[in-house]
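Below is the record:
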Amino acid sequence: MHAAWLTALLAFAQSSEPPRCTLAEGDTALCRRAFLASRLAACLAPSYSYRFGGRTVSHGLVWELSFDIPREGWEKAFAIGAPVDEVAMGLPPAKSAFYVSLAAAFALYPADLRLEGRVALRTRVLSLAFPESPSLSFLHLSLGLGGYASRLGVGPRAELRLRIGHIAWGGLALCAGYQPALARDLHQGDIGIGFEAPWVWWW
């Protein structure tokens, strides 16, 4: 009896395929759950930040909410569970779906009880290792400009950001930032690491 059950279980396992999640095929519901889970994780899990320059050096945490702004007509190319035919759509493979991202962040540096708000507009400048098709790449470099507000005042902020991971699912983000406090003649920089998964409006 046990042998019969084992044989039936093995036959079922071999005949059934495990659920898959890709942009163009597989389990659509699974893909959507993966997308939602990755975005929630990116919002809730803080990045680690190391701030230097000025008069203090401190460690902190940064929570961020970001949105990728798509080009017109690219929603079909990045729809979950739908086939992608860039040639039929007339979309050059050298183009990317996302040129810019909007981000708002909240930073906490416990050592000096400093709270900081940040906003940034980022633009993707390079995707590797498939520059002819950024949707297949796993290395994305972007530049950002924005501002910050803290007890030191309000000032500009510049960023250099590297995302290691699929453009649709997010990944590890390495960030270097510079923000002067002009009124106090302070020049500060920070480096950070964390998980980044921007929201996309049509999902």
Q: What stands out?
A: The chain has one domain: 47-200. The two ends are 49 Å apart (CA to CA).
